[in-house]
Amino acid sequence: MSFSELLAGYGTRTIGEGMSIESVFALLKVRGEDGSAAWSVRTGGVQLAMEELLGVLEGLTTSLRQRLTRAWKGTLAQDPPAAATVDQRPPQPVPFSELLAGFETVGVADEHLIESVFAVIKARRVDGAPVWYVRSAEMTLGSEELLGALDGYASTVRLDLAASWKW
After folding, report:
1. Angle at 26 between CA 32 and CA 154, to 5 degrees
2. Are 37 and 116 a contacting pair, CB within 8 Å?
3. 109-144: per-residue pLDDT in tens?
4. Where are the domains of the chain?
5. Pairing between β-strand 112-124 and β-strand 37-45 as defined by DSSP bridges
6. From the CB of residue 50, how many other CB atoms can be counted at a distance below 10 Å?
7. Closest CA to 127 of 3, 20, 40, 25
């Protein structure tokens, strides 16, 4: 099904001007009819190599761990300012269905309601350089919960990659 259909009604923020989205993977927190929560991953666009996917997940989890450590130490407010970008305007709201138009993925079973979306988007600038974005929608995930979910996904990718090695 299309990401547009899967995420219809969910909003997020735009990515940079002139960017073309190449690939996306979305971590979905879903809730079953019985109230139980589960995690699911949906992908679309150009398939990432396992090594690249693992690298992105390692970068995200390391960044979250560092941010949590600074928060626990009380030094989070001392973060250095983010690097300046060409476009200083804040990202504008946009439906996920518009942001990911044209991308196909696997649907979610009817008995599950998508509670939260955390998407990692690989885009290309006009000059061809890759740029990574993270976007979320609906219920905001706490850093600890997001770290646990991403770390779990990274573990499965790590195991799949290890199994692909022929010694």
Report:
1. 95
2. no
3. 888 999 999 999 999 999 999 999 999 887 778 889
4. 3-79+87-164
5. unpaired
6. 14
7. 20
The amino acid occupying position 106 is: V
Burial of 105: CB neighbours in 10 Å, binned 0-12, 13-18, 19+:
buried
For residue range 31-90, list pLDDT tens digits in order: 999 999 999 999 999 999 999 999 999 999 999 999 899 888 887 666 555 554 455 667
Please give the DSSP secondary-structure letter assigned to residue 86. S
The separation between CA 163 and the C-alpha centre of its own chain, rounded to angstroms, equals 24
Whole-model pTM: value is: 0.84
Residue 36, CA distances (Å) to 26, 109, 112, 115, 136 in order: 20, 14, 9, 11, 21
Would you place residue 93 in the very low, low, confident or very high pLDDT band (cuts 50, 70, 90)?
A: confident
Classify residue 68 by its DSSP letter: H
Burial status of residue 21 (CB atoms within 10 A of its CB: 0-12, 13-18, 19 or more)? buried
